[in-house]
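User: Please predict structures.

Assistant: First:
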Amino acid sequence: MNRSPLADPEALAGYRIGVTAARRAEEQIALLERRGASVEWAPFLSVEPTRIDADALRAATEAVTSRPVDILVVTTGIGVKSWFDAVESWGELDGLLDVLGRAEIIARGPKTVGALRRRGLRELWYPESECFDDVLTHLRGRDLTGKRIVVQEHGQSLSMVAHALRRQGADVQVVTVYRVESAEDPAPMFRMVELIADRKLDAVTFTAAPAVAAMMQVAEVTGRRDDLVGALQADVVATCVGPVTAAAFEMWGVPTIEPERSRLAAMIKLLETELPLRRSGTALEVAGHTLLVHGESVLLDGVEVHLSPAPQAVLQALLVNPGHVVSRRQLLSVLPGGSTASEHAVDMAIARLRSALGTKLIQTVVKRGYRLVVG
């Protein structure tokens, strides 16, 4: 366990933080409590996320090795490790590595790269974002006619991904190494949903995208989904370990924060700086001006600026990660009206925000979205 002797015992004093992790939960809780936080824990996933159907995996592996593979797409480090460990226990790993070693390997991120290299395989490419969507974008831009692609699932079904690749002419096989299941005891999950929906937490942490889906499912069953989403949009900080987990919130219009490096300690460190800012108000140097935001109050160089709900919502979304690009889709999801709003509404909100704050504070990043020009 990380003992971090430099932890400030008062950094998170007075804050109540929810933890949804099943794996390494004790470590995360210790890191938070060592900084003075009050912690509520409710695992949303099984503590044994790597439940493997050995017979099904063996059949899938035999199908993989039956003929050459053109492209291998690996999505999780733990999935690759579990797959190779299982095949090794059957005495058939050399044959699998020989077939995969001849393929073009695309990895989702550093953890998958590490798992591959430990077995002597080398990736050709992986996205800096660590987002699976960027892997798909990379593949969408290519001619896949007749290519045999093997995709390692990441605990949730990738059948729609396989279907999309087949529409490009590829021959796709999905290898299911394990399935992620919800936690066995639902009571803590129900309690966590109530705490979030009632805005009794300052933040809640997520280390796996399936945990987000499990939480929303519980919220739907209890009739608190709208309350939960509203709380996460306004008062409870959804804190994610990395971009893959954060992406699970996009469809709900929930802004998230995430560290630059997808590491547990980095996520906790981010909370140390983010929560006090949220409580006292966010002050930033933006394009040579001082922007202070506290709740719905906005001051530019000390002068109060009045914003209508749409530009206010856009500004709040841009402030979640100042200087980082926020996509049009994300901005659309936070606008009043949500799914009923149009992309034109985003354009109008940006225009009104620029009119109120000045045109130089918000930069358009072509084909990606918008960002505050901090510094």
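Second:
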Amino acid sequence: MHCHDLGRLLSCYGNPTVHTPRLDAFAADGIRFDGMFAAAPQCSPSRAALFTGRWPHANGVLGLTHHEFAWDLHPGERHLGGILREAGYRSVLLGVHHESRTLPDQEIAEQLGFDLVDKSEVLADPVADRGIAHLSALVAGEKPFFLELGFFEPHRIPGTRDPHGVQGFLGNHVEPDDSRGVAVPPYLLDTEAARTELAELQGAVRHMDAAAGRVLAHLDELGIAEDTLVIFTTDHGVALPRAKCSLYDPGLEVAFIARYPRRGWTGGRVHDELLSNTDFVPTLLELLQQPADEDLHGRSFLPLLDGGQPYTPHAEVYGEMTYHDYYDPRRCLRTRTHKLIANFSSAHAFMDPSQSWNRRCIPRVQIAGPKSSHAALELYDLREDPAELNDLAGDPEHAELLADLSRRLYAWLRRTEDPLLHGAITSPLHIKTAGLLGGAADD
């Protein structure tokens, strides 16, 4: 199960004002990972990395996959749904699909390798209903199954209650929730407008939690919870300024909870080792004793899940953004103590994911005036400055650290053959438009 734009906004991740009893109970009965980071801070690239085990700049999804954004997996990229179908699983995708080009369901199924794709409903309640129905049918079948279940909430969604110029989190079906108060994150100004928007976000999370809980309860009703591996995660951070669409921690941090009682993955264990969501596919393939392609970028963390096995943690994890609303290429390296961000364009200091003309949440860094562009490199000490508000890249005392992290980030770009090293990256729409103009000229 996965959802949009959640980050780690669950009570079990230390957010006491959020009401998420079902997923909290799931975490208490499973294994929670506190150091999991997305490959990218936006929907399609992160999901493509999650389900292929390869970085977005390698698998082809460097931006959004719907409408004229039109990014898609390269031919030959293998999605987890197809890998497991080849291994004998009944493979089904219901709800949100955003990791390859948005096409009719049957075409997506053929491209990715699913037996069935049904994205006709994406909101949490109808997706949960369909998931429950399909689980009953899948359990009655002869094959083991892989079910990918995607909830739209807590993504922003337009509704008739939105103030003029605002797109909030309520749509026409979610109620705001401040029953436990509202905690404004430290990278935003604490204003009444921010609290109103965060109450909406908390309501959307609560709504999604209830839907996920119904699916989890159905596993118990079917009597298969003991023998079923369940993963809950999200694509990237919350849809607030300086979170989603940025390489700061609030944009890349994600919830990741696993439960598989038959294997001993239960009991509420917590791990804080650095992990990337590119690690998911190789981990699952090792668990199922399936061969993994040599070009996977992730690394299995099965020893952590099993407990008591030798495991060498990542020294650092990486993140990237190339396109979202517009071209804004960035790459980052994060250790347990520091973050280096490399910016390859002179765009705004960070992309705003508010999807609104009138913003209700204001970043703290704007107090000194809006930044029209950003420096080539940014460096943050995550121990002293966890909100990443104090850029140390220009501080002579940190020059040696800056050089070391820069070398390591550049080595990753080289090792993974990042096309940014060879110049600007052309979007599908650019190619399409140039072709249309060229065709008209030929006529």
